[in-house]
Write a structure and sequence with these properties.
With 242 residues, the protein is an alpha+beta fold. It has 2 domains: 3-135, Phosphorylase Kinase, domain 1 (2-Layer Sandwich); 140-235, Transferase(Phosphotransferase), domain 1, CATH 1.10.510. It has helices at 9-12, 20-31, 70-79, 86-112, 151-167, 203-219, 227-235, and strands at residues 3-4, 37-44, 48-55, 58-65, 120-124, 127-131, 134-135, 138-139, 171-172, 181-183, 187-189, 196-197. It has a 6-stranded antiparallel beta sheet with strand order 1-2-3-4-6-5, with helices on both faces. Strands 7-8 form a two-stranded antiparallel ribbon. The radius of gyration is 20 Å and the shape is globular. The structure holds adenosine-5'-diphosphate (ADP) and magnesium ion (MG).
């Protein structure tokens, strides 16, 4: 286990990793006892880092959306100091906070519908804390790295999940693939920051893309159905093959 957080000073060690906003949010979460230790980094993605953490000895996953992205640093070098643009920095932050909150509520909504997703525990600013999916401190592998014993069964279960997500939670994952499914005792859908409600103007095209990704992955592994067949079943529509 990594840094045990007894007080704020112990987080300062990581100032190189965490910017001021993130440190403040972490302090707050520690103070409110949502978090007692931060362990190693599990993943460094395009927009977020995921860390293993502990709360009262139990494992949690800490997803931290980066405030400083490469793009923004370049952008801000042109606009900081120019008072006319101070709102841009603020707007960017607000957007990231909104994104974090959205992932939290999407996960909550999916869970309410009975889906196997991480349990969202709390969010603050750019930080989302959720239940840890894994054994000990080792996360379950992504589906792409698993030698699946019964691919037909796992395929059917993921299609059922897409159906439940759409019809019960009224959400479309919108980035579903073998990268965003962890496989332990069963498949778990993760990474729902970009998920949209069914009334989003692009919901159906996102749904089709999710189905295509899953079918593409399983086609070489089992008898996957046609994209349009799954799409029509999930939506109750009668779309023709494009
Ligand atoms: N709740 C969790 N439990 C265990 N590992 C997780 C959890 N959430 C994310 N991870 C790990 O972090 C990786 C990236 O998480 P993800 O939400 O997909 O972020 P990104 O937006 O960077 O793709 C996952 O593939 C997984 O290895
Ligand atoms: Mg992901």
């Amino acid at each position: 286990m990594g840094v045990r957080i007894k007080d704020a000073d112990q987080l300062k060690v990581r100032e190189d990793v965490f910017d001021e906003v993130t440190l403040l949010a972490l302090y707050k979460l520690v103070h409110k006892k949502w978090l007692s230790a931060i362990g190693g980094s599990i993943s460094t993605g395009k927009e977020a880092n995921v860390f293993y953490g502990e709360r009262d000895g139990g494992g949690i996953a800490i997803k931290i959306y980066r405030i400083r992205t490469a793009n923004f640093t370049t952008m801000s070098s042109y606009i900081t100091g120019d008072r006319r643009f101070s709102h841009v920095k603020k707007a960017k932050k607000e957007l990231i906070f909104a994104w974090t909150k959205k992932e939290f509520s999407n996960l909550a909504r999916a869970r309410e519908a009975g889906l196997a997703v991480p349990e969202p525990l709390v969010w603050d600013r750019n930080i989302l804390i959720m239940s840890f999916l894994g054994e000990g401190e080792v996360p379950y592998p992504q589906l792409r790295n698993v030698e699946i014993e019964d691919p037909g069964e796992v395929y059917a279960s993921i299609i059922r999940d897409i159906d439940t997500l759409y019809n019960k939670a009224e959400l479309v994952h919108a980035d579903l693939s073998e990268f965003n499914i962890l496989y332990g005792d069963q498949p778990y859908l993760i990474d729902m920051g970009q998920s949209v409600t069914r009334d989003h103007p692009r919901a159906l095209s996102f749904l089709m893309r999710d189905i295509r990704n899953i079918n593409r992955f399983f086609r070489s592994r089992c008898n996957a159905r046609s994209d349009i067949d799954v799409f029509n079943e999930v939506t109750g529509l009668d779309a023709a093959e494009p």
